[in-house]
Amino acid sequence: YAPWCPACQQIELTWESFAKESERLDITVGKVDVTQEPGLSGRFFVTTLPTIYHANEGVFRRYRGSRTLEDLQGYVLERKWEAVEPVAGWKSPSSLMMHGMAGLFHFSGWIRQIHTYLTVTLGLDVWISYAIFILATLLIGLFLGL
Fold first, then answer.
1. Residue of 31, 99, 119, 120 with fewest CB within 10 Å of its CB?
2. Residue limits of the Thioredoxin domain (predicted)?
3. 3-state class of 84 per DSSP?
4. Is 49 helix (H, G, I), strand (E, B) or coil?
5. Model confidence pTM above 0.70
6. pLDDT at 70 over 80
7. Domain spans of the chain?
8. pLDDT tens-digit profile of 36-51?
9. How is residue 127 annotated by DSSP?
């Protein structure tokens, strides 16, 4: 989820109620703020918010059902998740490809922090920050080419 997401705000009370029922359902319920954990949004290939996954014994399934408390509970209690196709091996959050995707999300966050430091903290113009990144990219490419 993300705090600014209207759909996430809409499901928040339902999700909290579902989490309160987790002990009775013998499950663990959690939520991750993708603005605070960009690597996880890359690892789980989050393209829409909110995104709900069911994980059992290392097998991940994306929940696409209704977002009511009754339907979420039924998904678990009635084992409806068994009828859902697991996430493909290469797209599984534990796969090498998704580790790489998480790394790219972390890297993009690091670049954003540098850009913010250059423009906000140091007060450089945005175009100067872009020029620095262009120069760094060219130098890294030249170094790798050598």
1. 120
2. 1-76
3. coil
4. coil
5. no
6. yes
7. 6-91, 111-145
8. 887 777 778 788 899 9
9. H
Q: Which of 61, 70, 135, 126 is nearest to 93 (CA)?
A: 61
Catalytic site residue 8? Answer: yes
What is the rounded CA–CA span in Å between residue 43 and residue 110?
17
35: which 2 tokens? 């603005």
Number of helices (H), then strands (E), in the chain? 6, 2
Residue of 1, 2, 4, 8 with catalytic role: 8
Q: Round to whole Å and give the CA distance between 139 and 146.
A: 11
d(CA 111, CA 117): 10
Is residue 59 pLDDT above 80, yes or no? yes
Which tokens go with 44?
A: 């789980």
* CATH fold group of domain 6-91: Glutaredoxin (3.40.30)
Q: Which of 5, 32, 40, 55 is catalytic?
A: 5
On whether the CB atoms of residues 6 and 61 are closer than 8 A, the answer is: no
Helix (H) or strand (E) holding 135: helix 126-145
Backbone angles phi, psi at 61, to 5 degrees: -130, 140
Q: Kindly report the backbone phi and psi dihedral angles of residue 63, in degrees, each rounded to the nearest multiple of 5, phi listed first.
A: -80, 125
